[in-house]
Design a protein that fits this description.
The chain is an alpha/beta fold and 274 residues long. 31% of the residues lie in helices and 19% in strands. The mean pLDDT is 93. Bound molecules: fe (ii) ion.
Length: 274
């Protein structure tokens, strides 16, 4: 697992360090799954073979350093009892705090897995996220933890949308007046993301208009999501957006309206706040 070190200047009284991981994509199955699901899991695991070793590395690194750990989603590739068990054990061992990724709601009937089985409605998506949150023992749609005078906020944008309820929660945290580090699975659009901008929130349509129609539908933001993105970009308190989803390490610091760190697969970011 690659370790990347960054420093964020927030003007805190006493410097401290935290860790970020993203997109582990656990692809495990066991005897609770049908043969078809196990075959599917084995197929997916070829893309994410690093996952078991990466989790062990991250677990040891947290134990060794004692630094708080944030995960910007896609801890699971899809929901199976074995993936949930491993994720829960990791969360218990590390105290991991997490924002939901789009793969946290990939829940399929037990006799099969298919790329067509992704929930299509907000209600179905949120029901899957609630199941994962219960299994992990942590809220993956919205949470706030204060560390060293900084509010660490995890917010769900896993389907390229942010809803009104979460926006209200974010504004309540802002009302406290402390600096905020905002963790979301999908990064905000920035021209500095490069070709992966097609996977960003509030991206101009030309980035994804040639994609599959399902992707075009999913990635076209609603009006409220556009407003929330503008709010985040213009908030004097939101100092950095930390995300994943693109599977590529990208640093947008001092380049755009909003500083961002995007963490790729098989990477730990070790971030010093000064
Ligand atoms: Fe991912």
């Amino acid at each position: 697992m690659e370790i990347i070190r960054n420093t964020l200047k927030l003007g805190v009284e006493k410097p401290f360090v935290f860790l970020q991981i993203s997109d582990i994509h656990l692809s495990e199955s066991d005897e609770n799954d049908s043969e078809r699901r196990r075959e599917f899991a084995a197929d997916r695991k070829r893309y994410f073979a690093f996952a078991p070793e990466a989790l062990e590395f991250a677990r040891d690194y947290v134990k060794k350093t004692g630094y708080p750990l944030f995960n910007t989603g896609d801890m699971l590739d899809f929901i199976t009892p074995e993936n949930l068990r491993i994720a829960r054990e990791f969360a218990d061992d590390t105290g991991m705090i997490m924002a939901a990724g789009n793969h946290e709601y990939w829940r399929c009937p037990n006799d099969r897995f298919s790329y067509d089985d992704v929930p299509e409605t907000y209600a179905a998506k949120n029901a899957s996220l609630a199941e994962v949150a219960d299994a992990l023992g942590t809220d993956i749609r919205f949470s706030c933890r204060e560390i060293g005078g900084v509010n660490f906020v995890c917010m769900d944008d896993s389907d390229y949308h942010i809803d009104a309820e979460l926006f209200e929660k974010l504004k309540k945290v802002e009302a406290e007046g402390k600096p905020i580090l905002l963790f979301m699975h999908i990064p905000l659009y920035s021209a500095h993301i490069g070709s992966e901008a097609k996977f960003s929130l509030n991206a101009p349509a030309q980035y994804f208009e040639n994609c599959h129609p399902v992707d075009v539908f999913e990635r076209t933001p609603d009006e409220l999501t556009c407003q929330i993105c503008d709010h985040i970009r213009n908030s004097p308190l939101i100092k950095c957006v930390l995300s994943g989803h693109t599977h590529v390490n990208t640093e947008i610091l001092g380049l755009d309206a909003q500083d961002q760190l995007i963490t790729g697969c098989n990477t730990i970011r070790e971030i010093t706040v000064i």
